[in-house]
Amino acid sequence: MSHNTTPTTPKIDDFPCAWCGLTVSAYAADGARRNHCPSCLHSRHVLDHVEGGPGDCRGRMSPIAVAVPRTGGWQVIHRCVRCDELTSTPVCADDNQLVLMRMAVRPLAQPPFPLEAFGTL
Ligand SMILES: [Zn+2]
Ligand SMILES: [Zn+2]
Questions:
Q1: Cα of 16 from ligand 1 centre, angstroms
Q2: What's the burial of 62, exposed, middle or buried (CB within 10 Å: 0-12/13-18/19+)?
Q3: Running along the chain, 121 residues long, what does each successive block of 10 average in pLDDT?
Q4: Residue 14: what pLDDT?
Q5: DSSP character at residue 10
Q6: Parallel, antiparallel or unpaired: strands 23-25 and 86-90
Q7: In the chain, where do the E strands start and end?
């Protein structure tokens, strides 16, 4: 008979949002792992998914943009305010859609060149 020493799964279900203080469940309703706040989309720089990684600077990560990779689906681009590292994270179903849309249209609202040029095409 083998000695059963299965460690109990550490309870890391909740974490406080570094920005708005909301208690965030680490798992979304559909069971997906969540690392950012569904309300303000801020995250914390913890690279616990990279074994022996240089991460865990625990800086606050601001959502700066959304990106759509070739595989489809929205990704939130986060930048660490402490070490400037960029990360991308899949959007969760219950993420704040207003914040997502605001990030998505921001480049269009503040173009680096006059949009009137397109009107004459
Ligand atoms: Zn938050
Ligand atoms: Zn960092």
A1: 8
A2: middle
A3: 55 82 85 88 76 68 94 93 91 93 92 81 59
A4: 85
A5: P
A6: unpaired
A7: 14-16, 23-25, 43-44, 60-67, 75-80, 86-90
Query: How many other C-beta atoms are found inside a 10 Å radius of the C-beta of residue 68?
Result: 10
**Other Cβ atoms within 10 Å of 43 Cβ, number:** 26
CA of 79 relative to ligand 1 center, distance in Å: 15
User: In a 3-state reduction of DSSP, which class is residue 63?
Assistant: strand
Structure token pair of residue 67: 């990106």
CA angle, residues 55, 69, 41, in degrees to nearest 5: 55
Per the structure block, which two tokens stand in for 110? Answer: 């503040």
CA of 69 to the centre of ligand 1 (A): 25
Q: Which one of the ligands is nearest to 86 CA? A: 2
**How far are the Cα atoms of 52, 62, 112 from residue 98, in angstroms, in the given order?**
36, 16, 23
